[in-house]
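dumping this here so i dont lose it
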């Protein structure tokens, strides 16, 4: 048996303690792991948005079988599309929150009403997005969304007091100008101007509300801390409030029996 205390000259390489410094490969392994995680999130996000966009345009622009109340055959309710989206999102969020936190609401430090403002803006944003597909194509809508830079900066200034340098405002202005030119370059007649103006107003509502949603969510994270509210709890809280808003809208607008007759 070797003695517990030995001089450094007598210590063999095999005698180096197991708790020694990490090998140089550990940093590389962590980099590879994070890179693979980033690639997975990127591909998942792109696949989700492409599928979502295709289905949005398919539902809102396809002429289905006409009914007595919907002779055009177009899907009659953008609000119902929003409700369907939020209903599924609540189910996914509840599963994730239960798995991560082992509780749906007990470990959520933010009160339920805190999610209402961004849920309201998120609902109007989605409603405008669905409705705008009646007047513009989804590629134009997607390109228009890239002009969200200025509204995001304005909302960040109003809600969180964030200051941006003048150069960033200029860059945002150039991006917005390019998007506006791309969106309106295809107009070719007086009858098309009204349609484009309606679509433009809906897209402005969509971008403005979407900008408010993201900045208000950041405000909640800063107020309550991301340790106390994770992305799944945010998803659950916002979508529960959004379901209540969309159901109220469907009842007040009287669209529930129209959608029921159209689907069945």
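and the seq i came up w/
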């Amino acid at each position: 048996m070797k003695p517990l205390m030995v001089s450094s000259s007598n210590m063999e390489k095999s005698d180096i303690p197991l708790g020694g410094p990490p090998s140089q490969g550990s940093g590389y392994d962590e980099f590879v792991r994070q890179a693979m995680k980033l690639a997975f999130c990127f591909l998942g996000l792109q696949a989700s948005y492409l599928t979502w966009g295709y289905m949005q345009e398919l539902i809102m622009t396809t002429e289905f079988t006409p009914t007595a109340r919907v002779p055009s055959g177009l899907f009659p309710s953008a609000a119902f599309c929003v409700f369907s989206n939020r209903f599924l999102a609540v189910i996914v969020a509840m599963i994730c929150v239960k798995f991560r936190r082992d509780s749906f609401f007990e470990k959520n430090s933010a009160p339920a009403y805190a999610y209402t403002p961004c849920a309201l803006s998120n609902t109007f944003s989605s409603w405008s997005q669905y409705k705008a597909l009646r007047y513009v194509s989804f590629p134009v809508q997607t390109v228009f969304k890239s002009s969200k830079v200025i509204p995001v900066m304005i909302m960040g200034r109003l809600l969180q007091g964030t200051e941006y340098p003048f150069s960033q405002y200029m860059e945002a202005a150039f991006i917005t100008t390019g998007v506006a030119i791309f969106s309106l370059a295809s107009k070719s007649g007086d009858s098309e101007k009204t349609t484009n103006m309606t679509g433009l107003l809906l897209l402005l509502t969509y971008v403005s509300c979407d900008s408010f949603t993201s900045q208000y969510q950041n405000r909640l994270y800063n107020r309550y801390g991301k340790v106390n509210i994770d992305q799944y709890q945010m998803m659950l809280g916002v979508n529960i409030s959004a379901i209540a808003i969309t159901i109220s809208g469907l009842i007040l607008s009287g669209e529930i029996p129209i959608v029921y007759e159209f689907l069945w």
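The chain has a mean pLDDT of 80.
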